[in-house]
Design a protein that fits this description.
The structure is a homodimer. By secondary structure, chain A is of the alpha/beta class. Chain A has a single domain, classed as Rossmann fold, CATH 3.40.50. Chain A is about 55% helix and about 10% strand. The first copy, chain A, is built from 10 helices and 5 strands. Chain A has a 5-stranded parallel beta sheet with strand order 2-3-1-4-5, with helices on both faces. In chain A, about 35% of the residues are buried. At the A-B interface, α8 and β5 of A face α8 and β5 of B.
């Protein structure tokens, strides 16, 4: 089974990916693949070089270059795990690349939604080097994602979690969603994270 | 205040619109405006005529023709109500038309999400004349909406409600969301729907 995790920048995607990882399921980050490729090509890991490698990859492998790189990684991981998470899908076209490469695999899309105002506040306080400092920078970054077609992936999600609450409540929602997905698809956990730990988190 | 309600076909938009109406706030349906315009032009209300009038309106008033028609209706309604709901917005461009026409008005986007599989089942059993009967027809209709840019409106929503439950639970979620929106924006209800009715619904 493949779980595609999507959401706008700063929406809380990584919490979902981490919840699957905590339960023993590996993930592939589309962003990390481009960063790895940048290093492989002997370039320093700067924002400009990563963007340049992104463009070159598309010239070499076509529009869905990063998805194609991810397919290889996912294939490897599916040999050892019944479920693999893909983080950072930005278009239905990329989803189509995965569906084409894994015709016998169950593929579901999980989206997280957070309001623009809330995402802006979070990204501003996160302050990673590529995070927006002004509303204009934030809108520009959002627009870049929307142009890729991420809105379509969100609209067509099989599961949606809303992150309009405090961190503790969001963690609960993510845990309950992940448990539901595993149960609905008959996937057994790799790590037994539930036993004896419920009291800590609820 | 203006509340824009959006969501894919069959997601449960109308329940949100109706909850606002129940509390005394009027709504403008973009779809109804085109149907009214069809009748005004002396044409019979068929799917083909409505599509034809849609195209003609765009030729006459530009890409956001229906939003422009809606602006006039919303202006009228805002004279009598502190909140007006707009149903059926399909692109951020249309949202921009409303923001441009009402620069001093608070405008929020409310989206509802339902999984494609669930929407298909609902539309099939609803069986309105324009509802899909096969998965192919359903995908085609979805794609039409996505091409307008509805995914972007959903991704940029200020509020999101997930309709992945039974009807009773969804009604509760919608009621609680509408109450939250009114409270957060200091809007007083036109009708007192709460008093003495809580016990019926909770």
């Amino acid at each position: 089974m493949i779980v595609i995790v999507t959401g706008m920048p700063g929406s809380g995607k990584s919490k979902i990916v981490k919840e699957f990882e905590r339960r023993g399921f590996p993930s592939v980050s589309m962003g990390d693949l481009v960063r790895e490729e940048t290093v492989k090509r002997g370039l320093e890991l700067t924002k400009e070089n990563v963007a340049k490698v992104s463009i070159r990859l598309r010239q070499e492998l076509g529009q869905n270059a990063v998805a194609k790189l991810a397919v290889e990684r996912v294939k490897e991981l599916l040999k050892k795990s019944s479920l693999v998470v893909i983080d950072g899908v930005r278009s239905l076209d990329e989803v189509g690349t995965f569906r084409g490469a894994f015709p016998d695999e169950n593929i579901v899309i999980v989206a997280v939604h957070t309001s623009p105002r809330e995402r802006f506040e979070r990204l501003k306080s996160r302050g990673r080097h590529d995070d927006p400092r002004s509303w204009e920078e934030f809108e520009e970054r959002d627009w870049k994602e929307l142009k890729f077609g991420i809105g379509n992936v969100i609209a067509m999600a099989d599961y949606m979690v809303v992150n309009d609450c405090d961190k503790g409540e969001y963690r609960k929602r993510v845990r309950s969603l992940v448990k539901r997905i595993l149960a609905e698809h008959g996937i057994e956990e790799q790590h037994d994270v539930e036993s004896g730990k419920e009291s800590e988190c609820n």
